[in-house]
Amino acid sequence: MIVPPDPGNVSAFGLLTVDVKNDYVRTHVTKNPDLGVLAGIFAELEGQAVAALKREGFTSPVCRRSADLRYYGQAYEVRVAAPPGPLGEEWRAEVLARFHEAHERLYGYAYRDDPRHAVEWVNLRVSGIGPITRPAIPERPGRAEAALTARGGRPVCFDEREGWTERPVHQRADLRRGDVVSGPAVIEEYGSTLPLHPGFTAECDAHGNLVIRRHGAGEPGTSTTEKGQSR
Question: Whole-model pTM?
Answer without folding.
Answer: 0.67
